[in-house]
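User: Fold this; tokens only.

Assistant: Input:
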Amino acid sequence: MKAFLILEDGNVFTGTSIGSAREVISEIVFNTSMTGYLEVLTDPSYAGQAVVMTYPLIGNYGITPDMESGRPWPDGYIVRELSRMPSNFRCEGTIGDFLTKYDIPGICGIDTRALTKILREKGTMNGMITTDENYNLDLIIPRLKEYRTGNVVDKVTCTEKRVLRGGKWHVALLDYGAKNNIAQSLHKRGCEVTIYPAHTPAEEILAAQPDGIMLSNGPGDPKECGDIIAEVKKLYNSDTPIFAICLGHQLMALANGLDTHKMKYGHRGGNHPVKDLETGRVYISSQNHGYVVDTEALDPKVAKPAFVNVNDGTNEGLAYVGKNIFTVQFHPEACPGPQDSAYLFDRFITMMGGDN
């Protein structure tokens, strides 16, 4: 079946429908990872977006147990070539069947290189995936320009508290769209992790007297999370050690008077270099974000930059002055991507009193 990707600038790509045949409008973003497509599909941070995979062949090892949540989250999936006969001893099915099962539309057979160049040059834009060969651009483009992702944290967060039993350290993990490997990275370091829904009051979390608090990654514009930001400020005012990743990093910044803005096309992939400003060492990181913290008006009495992106100079982390709090924009838990910065979980253990 034919399928069409229509961008809000009027560009149209023609390919073949994969997954669900339903029509969808979404924000179109690209990911440059060469492997780890399943972790990308199941990363809740992609809720409200349709993902373009820049690597040309996707699905060659099929669906494996390497999932970062219980289901895929993108609104749509866009690839150059989809493997229909995956080969791997852990393979449990094909991407096509996986997308169909979860009613996610996709398109393959298009020039993803040309599409990515458009998104890089013009910036992230909205688009539609449709199988309607009689589409009307005059009617569709106004709809695309009006589309907004909105507050998607509510869509991806857990609905009730759950506990990953562990050892000495008790960590409260706020689930704004947390990838599984965040909790696993803490658990394997001897932590008992209690995972809380995104809107849990700070008073409830602090009443449990955790040794540390983790603010997770998540989707969407951080400024849509006004009530969550108010609770994060209360956590900041406590003396509990806090480590925050991605959206959590942005929410902590907003809670302390900093600003965020949308990037032209974001950072999504597994090869982004970040520099530790304390040691001067550069790490290769996994990233997935379309918003960034502004540091031009950063009050040095509140926080200082801890990491910077080597490619474009944007902020990649903050250390809060007089507080046992540090936050990063990238993903030290990886999945997919390099594990160069996994040592940050050890730093968090040390903040809680450990000897790592």
